[in-house]
Amino acid sequence: MKVKTILVSQPAPGTENSPYHELSNKQKVKVDFRSFIHIEGVTSREVRSQKIDFSKFSAVIFTSRKAIDNYFRLAEEMRFKVPDSMKYFCQSEAVSFYLQKYVVYRKRKIYVGERSFEDLIKLIKKYKEESFILPSSDKLKPSIPTDLDKLGIKWKRAVLFKTVVSDLSDLENVYYDILVFFSPSGIKSLFENFPDFKQNKTRIAVFGNSTVKAASEAGLRVDISAPTEEAPSMTMALKKYIVEVNKR
Questions:
Q1: Which of 169, 179, 197, 231 has the greatest number of beta carbons closer than 10 A?
Q2: Per residue in 201-228, pLDDT tens?
Q3: What is the CATH number of domain 5-36+170-246?
Q4: 40-163: which CATH architecture?
Q5: pLDDT at position 1, please?
Q6: Burial call 65-104: b when 16+ CB within 10 Å, e when fewer
Q7: What is this structure's pTM?
């Protein structure tokens, strides 16, 4: 079956030169975007219930922009003035640059990993005397606490925001040729919104091994997956599939 419509389970890209726009224009397919999940910040009361006291930490580990937003939001709510001496360990350059929203960048001690958490671990290892806080969502890659424990450092995780299933009831009678997922949470959202969902002729595209696993466990047939050597991005995987089926 030819592909005419695609639903990507993420927010619409904020730029016109997105590869999804190029895919839509060149392959003559309609691409819609809809967040299947969203983030909700926890309350200061929930932070206290975790026995978290921001003043007890001399360094913060940031793995995402959401972690930065919620750390500074809760610090303000809890009337904690983040000291100028605070050290910031950021997983990537993009995350570190986002810190400028809250601190004077050039006046702070900021340490930046190349991209992965494994890169950041090498930097954290040099500062074992610090007391680290890791702001995170309720979903955390299991290897992160394992790697931090191996270092033998003093650290504590603080769940400051949660991944919540979005309401998709308005899509109940809407059909798409391809549904695109990027996380197990997206798969969970699909079935929480539509418990009786039947895949039938709908093609499922997934990104990442954990999403493939979640889709398979949910009884879905995975038709398109990325990353692969031929298609390192989802848009490349979609293009490859669409070119093949639409030429028939």
A1: 179
A2: 999 999 999 999 999 999 999 999 999 9
A3: 3.40.50.10090
A4: 3-Layer(aba) Sandwich (3.40)
A5: 87
A6: ebbbbbbbbbbeeeeeebeeebbbbbbbeebbebbeebbe
A7: 0.78
